[in-house]
Amino acid sequence: MGKIQTQKVLVVDDEEPILELLRYNLEKDGYQVETAVNGVKAIEIAKRFLPDLVLLDIMMPVMDGVETCRRIREIPELQKTFVVFLTARSEEYSEVAAFDVGADDYIMKPIKPRALMSRIQAIFRRDSKTDLPSKTIETGDLKIDRTSYTVTVKGREVALPKKEFELLYFLARNPNKVYSREDLLANIWGTDVYVVPRTVDVHIRKVREKVGDDYITTVKGVGYKFSGN
Amino acid sequence: MGKIQTQKVLVVDDEEPILELLRYNLEKDGYQVETAVNGVKAIEIAKRFLPDLVLLDIMMPVMDGVETCRRIREIPELQKTFVVFLTARSEEYSEVAAFDVGADDYIMKPIKPRALMSRIQAIFRRDSKTDLPSKTIETGDLKIDRTSYTVTVKGREVALPKKEFELLYFLARNPNKVYSREDLLANIWGTDVYVVPRTVDVHIRKVREKVGDDYITTVKGVGYKFSGN
DNA sequence: CCACCACATTAAGGAATTGTTAAGAAACCG
DNA sequence: CGGTTTCTTAACAATTCCTTAATGTGGTGG
Fold first, then answer.
1. Smallest CA–CA separation between A77 and chain B, in Å?
2. Which of A3, A127, B46, B93 has the largest CB neighbor count within 10 A?
3. What global pTM score does this model have?
């Protein structure tokens, strides 16, 4: 496994054990690692270390991950740097918010090292940032804009509440893929909260009410999917 | 509610109240549960019980969780078993060691039963995803896509109800192999429900009605087979 | 040629799943 | 704090799907 890597990774988290866990696994895979315990120090280190990838905890004292990411994005030398968020809760910062400040990926804690490493490899593999997830998804006469949490249907703009938006956004990211209620709960609500699966139905209905019945299809006994026409 | 689960869970913790709490919640959700109060007994029980998941307290007398996990990983029959650590906040330092011996996840104490159950579901769901065989089958002008639960015949997309889809998908996975009605019932309906074998005929007919008569062939006195042209 | 057998087809009742609504709880916002 | 929006849950309605049994069809051997 001793692949020769020259990639530089900066890990930012306020919890010492997490830093060690990540450093241990990254170095084992041959990455060059630096760590920082808050956003301010991260910026400092980033300027001289010029990492290829920053792993950034969203919840931190002094300067949180979102703000740190925004500052990193302003540094000319770091234009090509990847930023990946680490987050414990789906409630406080959503995937949508993370992408909005220029994150390249979004990983939920608890961190499973093997899964994380394969995600990181995947990020480096798409070396050009051309295939960044775009800020909007467009199919037919539906436009989903994650910066404003709005959806435009046939030119008519509709504002969706958070859960409804994320539901539609999640389904639309993988058109035609069927997700069970449990899949949707795990991905949108997170695994740390429990809500009854039928709650999904209600949100589905509200989304349909607002954007029309033509986009989300029910697959009985299985789940829901987005049908790009 | 009473979904039939056959998943086996071994809970290992030195605190009796924790064991009871977990047993109660797991059994309520239909899991088959065994418990052990230390690592040595856990290994013993695991060898004969062959659990699908082990919930393992990190801090235990006699043999701690990390060592127990290492031993479990050495047992050939338990290669596919998930190991999830239970850990209190103050014990976070052990994460590195925990993942290094092959843990699949960790859950923080104090345990919130509903969140725990949702995490456990997520773990098993992840598993069932990975061992699914190739998601789409293509032969001639028929395409069967398990991701979207749709079948495409000569470019025309048809939606099949669950049982019909499963039936077609199952037959198509082994073209030209003849399955008796009993085989099909056992594999698609499962062994714990009884339906009369002729029910299969009705489903076969409905599938033919939707995708055409050219794909499923009747072998008189034996059963049905998928004929890849 | 007819009786029998296996499968095909149909229709109807019941089972299971999803749609819809409303009400209370929780989060949000001045 | 109020007032408002959003989220969750539970109840009931609507719908789809599954199963069964009854009847139809074609082939086959006596």
1. 33
2. B46
3. 0.80
